[in-house]
Design a protein that fits this description.
The chain is of the alpha+beta class and about 375 residues long. The chain contains ten helices and ten strands. GO terms for molecular function: oxidoreductase activity.
Length: about 375
């Protein structure tokens, strides 16, 4: 007797949905590792400055594949839920391993997807540090998927390779057919992606009704952290503000007027946030290559950036040599033809190609050549 009790609960359905869920999880996992390595680079890791939209694409795929995984995960669980009521609960050691892997996988997957959605909305109803926990649980989820695949591989191969002619009616039960269930799953997944992908795909912005960021922000670019929340308004507006550039035992200080008198470079570059949204904009300022030469340093040196913000998590960042040699890495003074406003980093900010938004430090007060 078939252990499932309807066409929507067949092994064929479970294998097909599981295959697409595995692809979504795989894309999400790999792109998540990329984002983590860009933000916390190990010694061996090199992230290029070109193409300028690469991080925009990888992080957009990370969030979109995570959103696609939600309806796929629900469909997968629906297709296999009758197995939860099979008796005996444990029949053998491989069966125990299978059940344990499902428990760990389900828990880790739900945690990753739900907290990921809260992160996209910048809502954190918990006390733990989201990036670290999200990264650690990603490995747990990936490991449990591999264990589950190893245990279930014979079943998966059988389900995907056998002739299923007549499977839709073999049980003689009412409800969605196998094909109907799969089509509904694809439709729900496609709708979820279409409704949200506009956050990172400009062509879809007019149809993505749930897109969480648009070009309607200040100066045409969304803002995650305002000058008020960063507590920098007084320091940024101070008449005595100077950009301090330290190169070894030499220190040079630039006023805003002096920065404006240096050669200016204009480039169209995206802000690509870890939450998955991105927005292209026109930035104007001093190329870091020109600024380094102005203090007697050849481009290619690593640059430590310090913000006027004192307590923020991303108040400091490092611009690697790969980016300090790129002429599109700017100390930006203007945005979309206007002087930077406070929320976008006035008096100056870093904007570099192919970097996460959290590393595009705002309200810059100090640069140190390393």
């Amino acid at each position: 007797m078939n252990r499932f009790h309807g066409t929507a609960h067949s092994e064929r359905v479970a294998a097909r949905v599981g295959m697409w869920l595995g692809i979504a999880f795989g894309i999400c996992f790999v792109t998540g590792l990329v984002s983590h390595a860009v933000q916390h680079p190990p010694a061996w890791f090199l992230w290029p400055s070109r193409p300028v939209n690469l991080y925009r694409v990888t992080q957009g795929l990370h969030v979109i594949s995570g959103i696609a995984a939600i309806p796929l995960l629900l469909a997968k669980l629906w297709s296999v839920y009758p197995k939860l009521f099979e008796r005996p609960v444990v029949r053998s050691l491989p069966h125990a391993v299978e059940r344990a892997s499902i428990l760990v996988l389900s828990g880790a997957a739900f945690f990753q997807l739900v907290t990921g959605l809260f992160n996209v909305a910048q809502n954190y109803p918990w006390t733990f540090f989201f990036p670290a926990v999200h990264y650690a649980l990603a490995w747990v989820a990936a490991g449990s998927i591999l264990v589950h695949l190893a245990v279930k591989l014979p079943v998966i191969r059988r389900a995907l390779s056998r002739d299923t002619t007549g499977e839709d009616t073999e049980h003689g039960r009412a409800g969605l057919s196998r094909r109907g269930f799969l089509r509904t799953t694809w439709l729900a997944t496609g709708s979820a992606v279409l409704a949200t992908a506009g956050a990172t795909v400009p062509l879809l912005r007019d149809v993505s009704v749930l897109s969480w960021r648009t070009s309607n922000g200040s100066q045409g670019v969304p803002v995650n952290r305002t000058a008020v929340s960063a507590g920098v308004i007084e320091a940024a507006r101070a008449e005595g503000w100077r950009l301090e550039v330290v190169a070894g035992d030499r220190t040079r200080r630039f006023s805003l007027a002096e920065l404006g008198a240096l050669p200016q470079t204009t480039a169209e570059l995206p802000i690509a946030c870890v939450e998955g949204w991105s927005q292209s904009a026109t930035w104007t300022g001093v190329a870091v290559t020109d600024l380094l030469r102005a203090v007697g340093v050849e481009p290619g040196a690593e640059l430590a950036v310090s913000s006027l913000e004192r307590s923020g998590l991303w108040a400091r960042s490092t611009v690697p040599g790969e980016h300090t040699t790129d002429p599109l890495t700017l100390l930006a003074l203007r945005l979309n033809g206007e002087v930077l406003n406070l929320d976008h980093g006035y008096p100056c900010r870093i904007i570099a190609p192919n970097r996460p938004g959290v590393l595009q430090t705002k309200w810059v007060g100090r640069l140190e050549v390393r």
